[in-house]
# Entry
Amino acid sequence: ERCRMTIPGEFVPIDPDAELGPAQVDRLLKRLYNELAFARIALRNAREKEIKDLEAYSAAKQPLLLDPDCPMPSRSAGVSKAQHDEWINVRIPHLWWAYQESKIDRMSAVDYSKQIAEQVKCVQSIGANARQAYDLSGRHS
# Structure
């Protein structure tokens, strides 16, 4: 499995006192661009898994909806949508939980992808400042 930059012990934050010249910023940006690509692949995989888990859950749910004992939501019968859903979900808990976990995994993948994209923007800004400082001093890398 690929090492992600956020695994404890793997990610080394930028030392605020470190001198980051254009070459160092370029290397850091390349690492972040690669991580962003991996994050987007992980997001795509999480979305695909979520859809598969939803399909499995929905397929198992359909026969339960036709069960004569299935409580149908209605004010007159005093049955809420939550009670209806609970009746179904206790009969297929492994599929319901698998789908819930897939949703959380997808949301986490979205968050991680956004986090890396924000880091890229920050490092690009640092790079622009470094280039300006190097240009003003007459240095070139």
